[in-house]
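Input/output pair, single chain:
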Amino acid sequence: MPVYQLIPEIPLFPPIEEAEDDGLLAIGGDLTKERLLVAYRKGIFPWYEVGQPILWWSPDPRLVLIPEELKISRSLRKVLRKEKFEIRFDSAFQQVIKACADVRTQQGEGTWIIPEMQQAYTELHQEGFAHSVESWQDGKLKGGLYGISLGQCFFGESMFSTKNDSSKVALVALAEFSQQVGIKMIDCQMTTAHLLSLGAREIKRKVFLKNLKKYIEEPTLKGSWDSVSTSIKANKFQN
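Output:
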């Protein structure tokens, strides 16, 4: 199938059914708020590296985490009980997104979280669509994750950890928060063994899109999640 070239001035996408076998749907376009929001509402996300054009994806199968299906190991449960980390929401979004990029670079891996991506998602955060969940210890950021919230969906983008279990604790907090505010599906995009071990599962793209269409029409919890999350305690999660 052809890979479509997008026009910068028009934030539209071809039918997802036209995607390549690996999920690549289109190239080009831009990272404006309007295009990014259209993309996520259609089950599409950008993923590319320095030196590449913007690449837009909708893989099949799709990895998702249903909040109540999160698996918590015995060792992680001990960490939660001891409250080793303080959980914060939306208190350091730019630090989180930069750390997600830096940790991968320090590990000798490539990263799609290049400066243009960081700027685009920071603008979405300022608009109330992008959020971070953070694990703090002794006043220092030790781990976390970020993503986009639309309707009853959270589109996870990346997570990082500089202290054992810090990103897992942030994910537990997100799952608990999601249940309390009505988020039905956490999109994990690409399959990894790590996320599978935490309860994420693959579903066919057509199933993902069917669920997305239903959930995306619900109201979005827009704005800072900091005040909304004050009563969230990750160690109350009882899976």
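The chain has a mean pLDDT of 93. The chain has two domains: 4-59, 63-236.
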